[in-house]
Specification:
It is built from 14 helices and 14 strands. The chain is globular, with a radius of gyration of 21 Å. A 9-stranded mixed beta sheet has the order 7-8-6-5-4-3-2-1-9, sandwiched between helices. Strands 10-11-12 form a 3-stranded antiparallel beta sheet, with no helix packed on it. Helix 1 crosses helix 10. The protein has 2 domains: about 250 residues, Alpha-Beta Barrel (TIM Barrel); about 70 residues, Arc Repressor Mutant, subunit A (Orthogonal Bundle). By secondary structure, the protein is of the alpha/beta class. Helix content is about 40%, strand content about 20%. It is found in: Cytoplasm.
């Protein structure tokens, strides 16, 4: 059971996709012959085993996969069922990932009725050739239409996901992508540097020399996004994330700040205190364990002090609120002093260390030096 004094965040993993993108390493698959009613039954069974006795839910996040593939009937039943096992009456943010090609106005209206407040659109690019290369099933026109549709139904916040350093992409074409995105005036923009993750088609092609990395291009595109988006009034509050006004992703902030969260669904993770659990990444086994054996198919591990410190440093350094001195050792002082001297970091009034300039580009390398 969670500490009753803590905030609680809920993540629901929907692993289904119409088509598997070649760059994505999250647990996902096409629906195939999956019985969707039994899948929803299994999610609710896990909720009945995990959620009773927990504090009221602060944020909900449906990720995937493609949550917007769920039918209105299945989604309604799932959301209503979650409310049976947890207090979701005072949720501050309800986020939902969507593919522009998988919803209509009627579906979007239902999302608002169910209490969804934030849609994260996996647009990735406004260029049809890049969308094809990435395996995306929507067109640039559908992406624009989806944003208009969400505005028409009164969705409070719309986020646009973008990717850069794509094979064949130039700094000039990335600039056009950013300009087109700003024309849509989204509340939040996420910009992800393409990385070659294991167990993906892109990773295999990269390993075979068919796709190349270019750190100089990565840096140029990162700095271009930072300059253009902050210049347009967006707050660069995390390495890959920009927000207008108060449109920061509260759910993701909870991860970065080390708050407890519960994950439900195949492949989902939970962290409560120093205990981390992760569900099987097999939808068939997941459904069977829960519906036939009333058992959550999970593994657990305890984060020791070293592992917990590693995670805190790696995540907090990515944010514009920075890393408190309490996570640093005496032997870290020379490195911190050097970072400040080289204008790669600054110390805030509260003493936190915040990466600046080129330091933002080297966040992972700097974290490793502080951890070793």
């Amino acid at each position: 059971m969670l500490n009753q004094a803590c905030r609680m965040h809920l993540y629901i993993h929907i692993p289904f996709c119409h088509r598997i993108c070649p760059y994505c390493s999250f647990y996902k698959h096409t629906p195939g012959k999956t019985d969707m009613k039994r899948f929803i039954d299994a999610l609710l069974k896990e909720a009945s085993l995990r959620l009773p006795g927990c504090p009221p839910v602060t944020t909900i996040y449906f990720g995937g996969g493609t949550p917007s593939m769920l039918s209105s009937t299945h989604l309604s039943r799932l959301v209503e069922g979650l409310g049976v096992y947890a207090d979701i009456s005072s949720v501050e943010e309800f986020s939902f990932e969507a593919n522009p090609a998988t919803f209509t106005a009627k579906k979007a209206e239902l999302w608002r009725q169910l209490g969804i407040t934030r849609i994260s659109l996996g647009i990735q690019s406004w260029d049809a050739s890049f969308l094809s290369m990435l395996g995306r099933t929507h067109t640039p026109e559908q992406a624009r239409e989806s944003i208009l549709l969400l505005r028409q139904v009164g969705m409070p916040q719309v986020n646009i996901d973008l990717m850069f350093s794509l094979p064949g992409q130039t700094v000039a074409s990335w600039k056009e992508t950013l300009e087109t995105t700003l024309e849509q005036n989204p509340d939040h923009i996420s910009t992800y540097n393409l990385t070659y993750e294991e167990d993906t088609d892109f990773y295999r092609r990269h390993a075979a020399g068919l796709m190349e990395s270019d750190e100089d291009r990565d840096a140029a595109m990162f700095e271009l996004a930072h300059g253009m988006l902050t210049g347009a009034g967006y707050r660069h509050y995390e390495t890959s994330n920009y927000a207008q006004g108060g449109a920061l992703s509260l759910h993701n902030l909870a991860y970065w700040q080390g708050e407890d969260y519960i994950g439900i669904g195949p492949g989902a993770y939970s962290t409560v205190g120093r205990t981390r659990s992760f569900n099987t990444g097999n939808t068939t086994d997941y459904i069977s364990a829960l519906l036939e054996h009333s058992r959550i198919p999970e593994q657990r591990e305890r984060l020791d002090d070293a592992a917990y410190r590693t995670e805190r440093i790696g995540l907090l350094l990515r944010t514009d609120t920075g890393l408190p001195d309490s996570w640093l050792r005496m032997e870290d002082s020379p490195l911190v002093a050097e970072l400040i001297r080289e204008h790669m970091a600054a110390r805030q009034d509260n003493g936190n260390i915040v990466l600046t300039g080129r330091g933002r580009l080297l966040v992972d390398a700097i974290a490793v030096e502080l951890i070793d």
